[in-house]
Design brief:
Length: 451
């Protein structure tokens, strides 16, 4: 594959959770316990867009020493002299990054491998990806969970166009114990419904000078988590595939209800005044200043929150609406997917690096450095869960459910693009819930007609 320089993306998108570096001794130990790529040589171009790279404070350049993918590539290169893995971190918003990838592959200057979010952001470009089952043996495939999120049509026997990486990320409400205590609320007794959470926010507003909720929804991401989570509470686990396959209309009353909740939240006066113009990339910094009660985000923020608030940091999964059919539904699931590009000229080297990343020791290294999700390997080492918040989440998650793969994970990219846009508009009051779902349904009808 011809490789030409790619213009740097504008930094305006997804926040990447903090990572912690492994010591040289730990890196050496990991190297000694893994196998090499069989003496292969050559250059591999890897585009990353899902959290395997940590960015520096400027949000555009990698923090190489603390970046999992960079460290894994370095270790692989040391095991295989003559190999070079070049990593390009796509740092723009998700829609732009996806369009950039598509254009590069069509022009013949795309990557050999790419990581992106599982579900729709992977399956929308399935034609560009190789069948991963041709590059991993069955024992390796059987050792990992999450495959349904990377199979075409979400069918058990569908072509696997990526390898799922990590046990998944989940929509979370973080809380500041100090602020809640001063408001007379019990931080150890989290609200069981969304309505109770809003009531708690009103107590904070009435009794303190603190901000009840910190929201950063410029890109529409926070709306995606709240609306997608509440759709799961109303319709359950099967709703994801039903929406994708056109069996459930996107203007269904339950989806309108979820959007109305989001609109009401935007109009509540309980958030920071600039919530609609705050970039998600800056959201965590706003919360950890210490003068905010709640922050709606996801488990990928565990390290940032714990480093910012320490013992005052607590959390709970996003609560469902009062009267929800599935009150203990959890929004989220497998997040990262690693693909081999079909028209790569370096598939043997890509195969070797993919198998290297699949090893349980390397997956444990990812977990240890990221502390935002557990490993999806059956031989994972639980001792690497050193972040208190992640340990608590890993312990609580198995007792809850159903786990609902959310809207912006499951749907086609073209519909996700509309989703983010209308989410931002509904929060600001410039789009009604009914207008939002009408736009989503129209986008989905175009997608279904093209299948």
């Amino acid at each position: 594959m011809v490789k030409r320089p790619i213009a740097a993306m504008v930094a305006a998108g997804l926040a990447v959770a903090g990572l912690v570096a492994c010591s040289p001794d730990e890196l050496e130990a990991s190297q000694s316990s893994t196998t090499d790529g069989g003496g292969l040589s050559g250059e591999l171009l890897f585009w990353e867009n899902a959290g395997l790279v940590r960015l520096a404070d400027d949000g555009t350049t990698p923090d190489v020493e603390n970046s999992f993918l960079h460290q894994a590539a370095k270790m692989f290169e040391e095991l295989n002299p003559g190999t070079t893995i070049t990593i390009f971190a796509q740092t723009g918003d998700l829609s732009t990054s996806a369009a950039q990838f598509q254009a590069a592959v069509q022009a013949g200057n795309g990557p050999d491998m790419r990581s992106q979010f599982a579900g729709g952001p992977t399956l929308s470009y399935a034609d560009y990806y190789a069948d991963i089952s041709e590059y991993l043996d069955q024992a390796t495939i059987d050792s990992m969970s999450g495959w349904i999120t990377v199979r075409e049509g979400y069918e058990p026997d569908g072509r696997a166009v990526a390898m799922p990486y990590g046990a998944g990320l989940y929509f979370t409400v973080y809380a500041n114990k100090k602020v809640l205590t001063e408001a007379g609320l019990d931080p150890d007794n989290p609200p069981k419904t969304w309505e109770e959470l809003i009531a708690n926010g009103q107590v904070v507003a009435d009794k303190t000078d603190y901000t009840p909720f910190w929201v950063a929804d410029l890109e529409g991401y926070v709306g995606a988590w709240l609306v997608g989570g509440h759709i799961g509470g109303e319709l359950g686990e099967g709703s994801s595939a039903a929406m994708y396959n056109g069996e459930l209309r996107l203007d269904d009353p339950a989806i309108i209800k979820a959007y109305q909740t989001w609109a009401d939240f935007g109009a509540s006066g309980l958030t920071n005044p600039d919530a609609g113009s705050q970039s998600n990339q800056e959201g965590g910094a706003g919360f950890v200043k210490g003068d905010v009660a709640y922050y709606i985000n996801g488990t990928w923020q565990n390290t940032n929150i714990l480093e910012g608030l320490g013992d005052d940091a607590t959390w709970f999964f996003l609560p469902m609406l009062e009267g929800a059919q599935y009150p203990e539904a959890i929004g989220g699931g497998p997040s990262i997917a690693i693909s081999i590009v079909e028209n790569s000229d370096n598939k043997e080297l890509a195969k070797a690096f993919l198998n290297y990343l699949a090893q349980p020791e390397i997956q444990d290294m990812y977990v240890k450095m990221s502390q935002m999700e557990s490993s999806n390997h059956k031989d994972a080492d639980p001792s690497v869960l050193t972040n208190r918040l992640l340990r608590e989440q890993a312990e609580e998650l198995p007792g809850l459910g159903p786990v609902v793969f959310p809207f912006d994970s499951v749907m086609p990219q073209s519909v996700i693009d509309v989703f983010y846009r209308v989410n931002a508009g509904v929060f600001l009051g410039s789009i009604t819930p009914e207008e939002a779902v009408a736009q989503l349904q129209a986008a989905m009808e175009i997608e279904l007609a093209d299948r």
